[in-house]
Amino acid sequence: MITTLAERLRGLASLFWREVAKFGAVGGVAFIIDNGFTYYLMHGPMTDSEAKARFVGASIATVFSWIANRFWTFRHRRQDNVIREFLMFVLINGIGIGISTGFTALAKYSLGVTDKNMLFAAGIVGILVATVVRFFAYRFLVFNKELDDEPEFSHDHEIIERHPHTQPGVRVPEQSVKNPERPGPPA
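Request: output the structure for the sequence above.
Response:
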């Protein structure tokens, strides 16, 4: 039993770290997209609107991120209801965009930072904070289809949800067990 438990825990940890690695790869590309557009906009068409430039860059990166996470990182956890999944993704990313844009706006309006490179850096710090929030939100709220469909993980919930009659040394009295052939309360 301990060997089986250890194998299941190793399998879950391996799956988790594979998801983290894929999420990191998608996030790295989204980071480049986000910051590439933001930098271009801050130093070009939106030169006086740094927070808006960050918002636009993050929004473009969000669309890329949803597609990549849906079809690669969390492909085994995709929800059947694509619209609900997308709306949850947009909501979570809205929070993430709010965090990264908020860091830029906080630096500019509350701290009085005027240097575009420092405002850009404030947005990057916001992205790092938002990334941690996004991973767990994606994992548990957006792409949250149970792994019970996969044979090697089909009984992993039992690791946490142990029933009294399955614990060693705990006996369930026979009279409290319901007889399936006889309707009504246990005899």
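The CA atoms of residues 13 and 141 lie 19 Å apart.
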